[in-house]
Amino acid sequence: MGSRNGISPSTSYLCGAKSTIMINTVIFDMDGLLVDSEPLWGVAMREVFSTVGVSLSPELTHLTTGLRTKEVVSYWHNYFKWNSKSAEQVTTEIIDSVTHKILHEGQGMEGLHYILDFFRSRGFGIGLASSSPMSLIQSVLSHLDIRSSFDAVVSAEFEPYGKPHPAVYLACAGELNANPLNCLAFEDSVTGMIAAKAARMKVVVVPEAHKRTEPKFVLADMKLDSLLQFGDEQLELLRK
């Protein structure tokens, strides 16, 4: 993509005596932000891990929220040292299971269509930067019928490092032909928030209800309880 509305992505301008940040690109995480999939990930992981004799509580599964699936499996494999299945097989089974669950039970998060329409109507470039494998991302976008809403879709599966490394956000900004300094990221996890901040983007976090008191979210530029709470007022605040 090139410039939008005749404005270069790297352009900033002065409004009176104040310098205004030219945010004209938005990049979304997917799981737990656009689709209510985090509970389904938890169930899928606990079911598959139980086949190798590993019992994970919901609290333990939350420890690896935001990481790539292979990194989650590697983390627990190093801890529990099972040998009945390879880490690669466990990873594949988890992805297959969560894909099945999302396609049968997954629902869009509150405000999903509102937020996509909000930025599209204002001429923003819109991207998706997810830790999930591309096969799952495409399944979710098709399931929710929102694939056409995105100008770029990037998976950390193809990056050398996953979140909290900024690689997937930088790659998505590159696909959008956008300067990271002109990008706004939406996240639901601490891991994702750190990745977007490391990419030098403004970050809005919309955590799950039980995670809203997490002290680390103070690093975000804005914290909301729902995508529906974001509007022109919040956008202008982020541009100051």
From TrEMBL:
It comes from the Bacteria. Pfam families: HAD_2. This is Hexitol phosphatase HxpB. It comes from Chitinophaga barathri.
